[in-house]
Amino acid sequence: MEEIEYELRESLDENSDKDFVEEVLSLGMVSEWAAPRYHSTLLTSQLLSNSEQKYYSQAQHLAEMKALYTKSQIDLRKLIRDYGYSMSVINGV
Predict the structure, then answer these.
(1) Which residues contact 7 (CB under 8 A, 6 or more apart)?
(2) What's the pLDDT score for residue 13?
(3) What would you report as the CA-atom Rg of the chain, rounded to the nearest whole angstrom?
(4) 3-state DSSP call for residue 14?
(5) Which residues pair with 49 in a beta bridge?
(6) What is the pLDDT of residues 50-67, one digit of tens each?
(7) Which residues contact 10 (CB under 8 A, 6 or more apart)?
(8) pLDDT digits over 33-48, tens only?
(9) Distances from the Cα of 47 to the Cαs of 36, 41, 53, 84, 91, in angstroms?
(10) 28 and 4 in contact (C-beta within 8 Å)?
(11) Are 6 and 24 in contact (CB under 8 A)?
């Protein structure tokens, strides 16, 4: 278990800051988890299921990993942008 200490320059309140930092970390973790899978050559190996005789499309799997990676990056940027904007509105800047 790790503990992270942080301090925001312009704090709204402790609970809001905690929620914001947790969301930033979780979206960053998803993005970092998806990146090597999206860029990996291991995606070229096809998956088979003997019991149900299903074949999983490599292109579909790659598209899903790309979508996850892209969405996590966009959500992370939006979260940081929106939090900064809300702080400026609250502080009257």
Answers:
(1) none
(2) 79
(3) 19
(4) helix
(5) 54
(6) 565 555 667 777 788 888
(7) 87, 91
(8) 888 776 665 555 555 5
(9) 18, 14, 10, 43, 53
(10) no
(11) no
Which pLDDT tens digit goes with each residue over 6-25?
888 777 778 888 888 899 99
Measured CA to CA, the distance from residue 81 to residue 79 in angstroms comes to 5
Q: Give me the phi and psi of 49, to 5 degrees please.
A: -125, 110
Give burial (CB, 10 Å; 0-12/13-18/19+) of 92. exposed
User: What is the Cα–Cα distance from 60 to 62, expressed in whole angstroms?
Assistant: 5
Model-level pTM? 0.60
Structure tokens at 85: 């904007």
